[in-house]
Write a structure and sequence with these properties.
The chain is mainly α and 469 residues long. It folds into 2 domains: 297 residues, no CATH class; 114 residues, Tetratricopeptide repeat domain (Serine Threonine Protein Phosphatase 5, Tetratricopeptide repeat, Alpha Horseshoe). Helices cover 64% and strands 0% of the residues. The chain is built from 27 helices and no strands. The longest helix has 23 residues. The radius of gyration is 23 Å and the shape is globular. The N and C termini lie far apart (79 Å).
């Protein structure tokens, strides 16, 4: 088949999948935890986020750009690998793989990292190891987990050492600029935080809202990496067992997450998770080559930090390329193993049911659509969501609607029972009390919020300044 018509078919299939996912999840994407809005802020060193993503997010029509970038792995496989029917099928499956498509419709660094990972593997196939190493380093500027691969590269001998050298050449200038500006190595700035989160089930089970916010305030003077090493040192065997379960959960469908419920987001195209299972079966074809080392790095990332659908897609091109080379007699048992893990693995850190609905409700609150917000919160409770977030959001919506003072106060009280050290809850309580004329109590709540998070001082200045009046 001619490559140009095949490429058009692949792009059409991929665009269709992405449009379906976007239309079914559009209301969810305005939440900062889901669609990294911080990337749209002007970047300046020291970078707090993967630096390359600032550039992509700052482009016109950035979401469409990221969507097209997420199609690049399939096009690289189609256009740069030998012209065979198998590679055509591989390209088509890569374009329609649902978790990569989900990352492609978000302003996240995973899709660009996956595209560069695929390009690296194609360059290796053509024996261009210097360029492959540089591209791998560029991919690490999007997703720092790829740095785990670098110490593994010498296993490949001379070509691996060449890739390592050029990968470092891509990463080193950005790291130098960031550290000279007073920041950490930007490609791994959240490494300590993620290591800490992944060290304990209670941290992983806490959704990224006001409950997790107060965990960040525990021993704020202690770096996250130090907290993680403390947990590991106290119970190394327990930590290793948790890591083992996290590594197994890496292979589950649709896959674990923290910021969103990926299974719910993928529901319109749930049947396409069969493609993901097929790709993940590539682990059965591990050998001494760059694709296999990437697969190992992905599993090590889950072991050390935590598994997540959005992080896994970075390594998916390596799994896909390896799976395409497996004979059926090895592929079928491997797919069966993925399905068995998905059905029977008891992973203690799955996201809370109804999380997507709660995040959508919070977006509705930002738009001052309190009626929709409250309806969504009721739906989230029916779906099984429990915790401080639902009460904090509901109380804020009720206050905006001007509900009775006691009714709103009771709802804020429920939020504080679950998250008594959340700066956001105390800030919202301060504003509520201020608007209802309870000046002294508002000042006390604002002072508590500021002690928990000094950044809130400017936002609460009107309430705090009333102390001197």
């Amino acid at each position: 088949m001619n490559r140009l018509p095949a490429a058009l078919l692949v792009v059409l299939a991929g665009v269709t999948v992405r449009m379906v996912l976007y239309r079914s999840n559009e209301a969810l994407f305005a939440h900062p935890q889901v669609d990294e809005q911080e990337y749209l802020e002007p970047p300046a060193p020291p970078f707090e986020r993967p630096p390359a993503t600032y550039f992509v997010a700052g482009l016109p029509y950035s979401r469409a750009v990221v969507s097209l970038i997420s199609l690049l792995p399939s096009l690289f496989f189609l256009l740069a690998l030998p012209r065979t029917r198998k590679n055509l099928v591989l390209a088509g499956l890569m374009a329609t793989e649902p978790t990569l498509a989900l990352s492609g419709i978000q302003l996240l660094p995973e899709a660009p990292a996956a595209a560069l990972t695929a390009l690296c593997l194609v360059l290796v196939h053509h024996c261009r190891h210097r360029m492959a190493g540089f591209v791998l380093g560029a991919a690490a500027l999007f997703r720092g987990e790829l740095l785990i691969l670098l110490p593994l590269l010498p296993i490949l001998g001379r070509r691996g050492r060449t890739m390592l050298l050029f990968a470092l050449a891509a990463v080193a200038p950005v790291v130098a600029v960031n550290m000279a500006s007073g920041g950490p190595p930007s490609v791994a700035s959240t490494g300590g935080l993620n290591l800490w989160i992944g060290s304990d089930w209670s941290l992983l089970k806490t959704p990224p809202g006001v409950e997790f916010e107060q965990l960040m305030e525990v021993r704020p003077e202690t770096p996250f990496a130090e907290r993680a090493f403390s947990v590991i040192g106290e119970d190394p065997a327990g930590w290793a067992f948790r890591g083992f379960l996290k590594a197994l959960a890496f292979f589950t469908l649709p896959g674990p997450g923290r910021n969103i419920d990926s299974g719910e987001a993928l529901r319109p195209l749930i049947v396409l998770l069969g493609v993901t299972a097929l790709f993940l079966a590539g682990m059965a074809g591990i050998r001494r080559d760059p694709a296999s080392l990437l697969m190992v790095a992905g599993v090590l990332s889950a072991f050390l930090f935590f598994p997540s659908v959005r992080y896994r897609v970075v390594f998916l091109p390596a799994f896909a390329l390896t799976a395409a080379c497996l004979p059926w007699k090895r592929l079928i048992p491997a797919v069966s193993a993925v399905l068995a893990l998905s059905l029977f693995l008891q992973y203690p850190a799955h996201v809370r049911p109804g999380l997507n609905t709660v995040l959508t409700a919070q977006n509705a609150l930002r738009e001052n659509n309190t009626t929709r917000c409250l309806a969504l919160l009721s739906e989230a409770e029916r779906q099984g969501f429990e915790g401080a977030d639902i009460h904090n959001i509901r109380a804020s919506a009720m206050a905006i609607e001007g509900r009775e003072f006691r009714e709103v106060l009771l709802e804020f009280g429920r939020a504080m029972e679950a998250a008594p050290r959340s700066p956001t809850v105390w800030r919202n309580m301060a504003v509520f009390l201020w608007n209802y004329g309870r000046t002294q109590h508002a000042i006390e709540a604002a002072q508590t919020a500021m002690r928990l998070n000094p950044v809130l001082e400017a936002e609460l200045s009107e309430i705090l300044d009333s102390r001197t009046e």
